[in-house]
Amino acid sequence: MLQRSEKQLVTRYAAAWIQAMAAKPALCRQDLLRLRDMLAQVVPFKRLIDDRLIAPADRIRLLQLLFPKLGLDAMTQAWLLQLARRRRLSLLPACLEEAEAKLSQADGREPARVISAYAVEEGHRTKIGQALARWLNLAQPPEISWSVDPHLLTGFRCLIGSYLLDFSGATKLKTMARSLTEGHEPSKL
Hints:
The chain has helices spanning 4-20, 25-41, 43-50, 56-70, 74-85, 92-107, 122-135, 169-182, and strands spanning 111-116, 143-148, 156-160, 163-166. By secondary structure, the protein is an alpha+beta fold.
């Protein structure tokens, strides 16, 4: 959980990046999705972002080595380097989430967050987005940010607006355990 001062920093950094990319909104979204995917699927990249033992100069060097492979816009690269120089790279996941929410609001789309037990393939991501659009009566699928939490065991959780859809194995097991300890029949789990 972010402290109030960190939340303010996240809001400020996300707004600065969006403003810098204002002339290129499609590239901004593309970079946002690339960075989200890297954080969700590439463990060394996540470690580079989270590990506070890596010296700032080393982080900057490693980021510069990664930039050609990531294919990020020059403004996004400069923004990431600024976060690294100010020792705020650990705020990147929250900054991306904030930026995604702001971009979705500007587009009139409801942002969604899906947390799954495993990385979700692109085809399944599309199907989940379409299912959410049908369920919520949206004209188009929501903008979805994806993350992985192995503690869910199986399935996924989706946060969209004030809704929480929980299809995780962890929740089903907790419900079953509670039913068994309270003496209820677990037939409708």
